[in-house]
Specification:
Layout: E1 4-10, H1 13-25, H2 34-39, H3 52-58, E2 63-68, H4 79-98, E3 104-108, H5 115-127, E4 133-137, H6 151-160, E5 164-167, H7 173-176, H8 191-205, H9 208-211, E6 217-219, H10 230-238, H11 252-259, E7 260-263, H12 271-280, E8 285-286, H13 296-304, H14 310-325
Helix pairs in contact: 4-5, 5-6
Length: 327
């Protein structure tokens, strides 16, 4: 069965240094254990032929949609440096994707610190580099994608008909305090999901999909908990008389089901996939592994051990991606 994996990261040694520098600026604790760094993160800057391609072949993965590792262009305070980094990272991404024709497509990174430059870079990514969308690594200097300065970015995404993949990111330092000494709750265990879900809901309640009904948003890790909370979100927001604000005209779940796609990246219990399919619809579920942070073997086993039918697996593994990304 054909497989297209859509949340598959890479880095360079310079990007890994930038990652550590940004975490210090964000006052985020170093939560990466030695075993994780040595066995998984260390693969991110290896030549593709060294581990990635052999692992794709042994697991029957036909194509990856690659993206620059967090924080990418979001990791800069200075807008000029963010613009320079986005262009450089996108050129590197395009070069890597071209080394193995037919095996890779790509998401670009955008310098949202300068929204006008971000629109220009988005157009270059799609029209010149042939990218299938963009991946944004959380907030940009604590500015979120519901804010009106990004409306032209959403308009361009809608016009170009490419999705925005919202990747998880670190919260503000004062929010980290809520976790106390339980640093094991930071990152993938919990706080990334909380941050990603909050960002996505800001986009929904901020009326982005009301203004741009054709926009497409992707969340990883089976939707960062959103598919399992749709009724609760509708019920809770109804108690606040949210419609009176005039930003949206329908229940939040309407926009989530229409404009949001979720990928299976990361690890989860197989039965969770059934809830995501039921909540979002089978045509809004995409296959991802989160390589190299999670293995390709695990990404596949989470689907194979579920109760998904062969027809549903075909949709998840490749048909939905072929339709959404036109690959």
């Amino acid at each position: 069965m054909k497989k297209i994996a859509i949340e598959e990261h890479f880095s360079t040694k310079e990007m890994l240094v930038q990652m550590k520098e940004w975490e210090k600026k964000m006052a985020f604790p170093d939560i990466m254990g030695k075993k994780f760094v040595e066995t998984k993160l260390s693969l991110s800057d290896k030549p593709f032929g060294e581990h990635r391609i052999p692992s794709m072949d042994s697991n029957g993965i036909d194509m990856q949609i690659i993206s620059a590792m967090w924080p990418a262009a979001q990791g800069f305070d200075n807008a000029v440096k963010a613009v320079e980094a986005a262009k450089l990272y996108n050129d590197i991404t395009a070069s890597l994707a071209s080394e193995y024709p037919g095996r890779f497509r790509a998401f670009g990174t955008l310098p949202l610190q300068d929204p006008a430059a971000a629109v220009m870079e988005l157009e270059r990514c799609v029209k010149e580099l042939g990218f299938v969308g963009v991946m944004i690594q959380g907030h940009s200097n604590f500015e979120y994608l519901d804010e009106m300065q990004f409306d032209d970015v959403w308009a361009s995404l809608e016009e170009l008909d490419v999705p925005l993949y919202l990747h998880v990111g670190h919260p503000a330092a004062d929010q980290i305090e809520a976790y106390g000494d339980y640093t094991e709750m930071l990152g993938p265990a919990w706080n990334w999901a909380a941050e990603g879900t909050t960002h996505a809901l800001r986009i929904v309640f901020g009326g982005v999909f009301e203004r741009h009904p054709g926009a497409k948003l992707i969340l990883g890790h089976l939707g960062e908990t959103l598919p399992y909370l749709l009724r609760r979100i509708d019920e809770g927001s109804d108690k606040t008389d949210y419609l009176s604000k005039g930003r949206i005209t329908r229940e939040p779940s309407f926009y989530i089901k229409r404009n949001l796609y979720v990928s299976t990246s990361g690890e989860y219990n197989p039965e969770t996939l059934r809830c995501a399919i039921s909540a979002m619809g089978i045509d809004h579920i995409l296959f991802g592994c989160d390589y190299p942070l999670s293995s390709m073997e695990t990404g596949i086993s989470c689907i194979e051990e579920s109760d998904a039918t062969d027809e549903e697996k075909e949709m998840i593994y490749h048909k939905n991606a072929e339709r959404l990304f036109r690959v």
